[in-house]
Amino acid sequence: MVSHKEFVGAGKTPGLQVWRIENLDLKPVPKALHGSFYTGDAYLLLFTTSAPSYNIHMWLGDECSQDESGAVAIFATQLDDFLGGGPVQYREVQNFESNTLVGYFRSGIKYQKGGVASGFQHVVTNDMNVKRLLHIKGRRAIRATEVDMSWSNFNKGDCFIIDLGKDVYQWCGSQCNRFERLKASQVAIDIRDNERNGRAKLHMVEEGEEPAAVIEALGPKSTIAPGTDDEKVDTSNRKKGALYMISDASGAMKVSAVAPSSPFKQAMLSAEECYILDNGVDRNIFVWKGPKANMSERKAAMSAGQQFIKDKGYSNKTQIQVLPAGAETTLFKQFFIDWKDKDETTGPSKAYTIGRIAKVEQVPFDASTLHSDKAMAAQHGMVDDGKGKVQIWRVENGAMAPVDPSAYGHFYGGDCYLILYSYRLGGREQRATTLHVEGFFLWLHPQVRVTQGQEPPHLMSLFAGKPMIIHSGGTSSKGGQSQTSSTRLFHIRQSSSRATRAVEVEASASSLNTNDVFVLKSPKAVFVWRGMGASDEEMAAAKHVVGFLGGSAAQVSERKEPDDFWSALGGKKDYQTSKSLQNVVRLPRLFGCSNKTGRLVEEVPGDFNQSDLATDDVMILDTWDQIFLWVGNDANAVERNGAPKIDSDPSGRRGLPITTIKQGAEPPTFAGWFQAWDPKMWETDPLARVFGRV
């Protein structure tokens, strides 16, 4: 195995490492200048998580040479070998980088003219003799491109940075909005702090109010062009792909068709082979490496992807991701109708991340500190401790019939319920309304839609310490109950907030799960089955279910079941025996819904914060077991109406709770996902705060 001297420290600690190709060799880029790329060069980047897991990126500038492009590809392959073949590899092209790469640079990516051949070096200096113009583009992924110092490059719809060394001017066109101005300011601040070591002064300049220094630098001002629309995306071809198998059995690498169009089935991927998933219409190519594929095919994965792009006549801007089995990205998995990660089962689970550092610290649930700890409230989906006032009605023939309080906590799949919950927050009474319509709960103020079997912890906590019991089918109306089965099985699981739910499931051994407790009632006996990963609280909840079903229960431990137990379930069958679901943690994701850029849904790259909530958009926060729709005060009607209709989850999740929240009325279940949430953030102008402290 060939190993470069720069690889000695590669991947040793979490974080980002960047090298530039100089004279066909690797040279490290100073950390303060990460995110700044010369357009005439090629770069190698390595991102290491604390797991550890790795992402390798080779970045190609528009003007880099063929030799530099070839060199960085060789170094990427060598680095992949050095790290055991497990990293996810990305081919990145200027202006078309993946969200993964863009997310490393919160202050945006800067493209500078020139490169090694022109004598430009990555050196941190205090040089004040700078004179350049940067064009800022992007609402989520910020890109600053160096252009010629000329008024002809300006337009009314964008922000520009006029960098004069000791003074950095942020120029804002008359048609650009406040959120774009705020994002551009991040670039200006980064220039001051990292390129000038804090010694430059920032200035905000409005179109038509340019100071003498700007006029002197750019010359007499000419007519400013109108704003231009951002690149439109052809959404008609989104998610369309074709699947090919790569083979070198004949001595030469060949590609053969597996399936002409998506969606695919996961079983199409054989562990003994490598595959290309062609999403060229969206400028994406994925190369999947089977764990048992031969070494030559695995090592040739990136080059096979590059050759595929050429053979198909795709743009040289097309991204390539090389994915080892087990490290598949969301973009890849969205093409498979039945994708399941290892040990994954149906139903909600904790979120999981690979390839990024999850900065959301897991907070144990403690009801006594619920109101003061937003992070805990958010992670456990709790607006309060569930001790408020509960009222429940059942909908019958279009009218509301009160449910007897003694039956609170019991829900039937054939019924429609309205639940009103009142609680106090910040000294004021708040109300949450839940509508359950034949398997669906809809919460209003905040508005939440919840599918049966996916109830959030807060709803489960409303019934005075008793488990929420969900019956399969039937109705609770008087005289309307359907005939129950002679054998019934209830699955009991505790949420992270310690609330429990008992759901009636198919009375079959295949329904069992080693993580949980089950109550089985047959005509002859009642059993409480405890899985090896079950908790004492789940066992306590089982007593309430037994009390409802009647009879005296026998306790049964997993692997010590009597024959009568298996007979009641129709015999032994395979069931979920992995304990991994208990400790899986996924990273939350934030998306913007906007019709301003041609992309209705666009992910916010990297670790998001409160400032990423664009007040003129609708935002989607995906915490894996719950979805939040955040509506900015200035969002337009198209965005407000379009966002709730979006249903394109690539992982196959269905029926998750969906909560709609208005700007300024964020509950702790939402705010806690954002580090250092400031409830007064929008009371003052964010730009005024930025330039008021610089």
Automatic annotation (TrEMBL):
InterPro entries, sorted: ADF-H/Gelsolin-like_dom_sf, Gelsolin-like_dom, Gelsolin-like_dom_sf, Villin/Gelsolin
Keywords: Acetylation, Actin capping, Actin-binding, Calcium, Cell projection, Cytoplasm, Cytoskeleton, Nucleus, Phosphoprotein, Repeat
Molecular function, one GO term: actin filament binding
Parts forming coiled coils: none
Keyword set includes Nucleus: yes
GO biological process, one term: actin polymerization or depolymerization
Domain called Gelsolin-like: residue spans: 26-101, 142-214, 258-332, 500-542, 601-670
A GO CC annotation given for this chain: actin cytoskeleton
Annotated compartments: Cell projection, Lamellipodium; Cell projection, Ruffle; Cytoplasm, Cytoskeleton; Melanosome
Assembly and oligomerization: Interacts with NUP62. Interacts with NUTF2 and RAN; involved in CAPG nuclear import.
Family: Belongs to the villin/gelsolin family.
Name listed for the protein in its UniProt record: Macrophage-capping protein
Annotated gene: scinlb
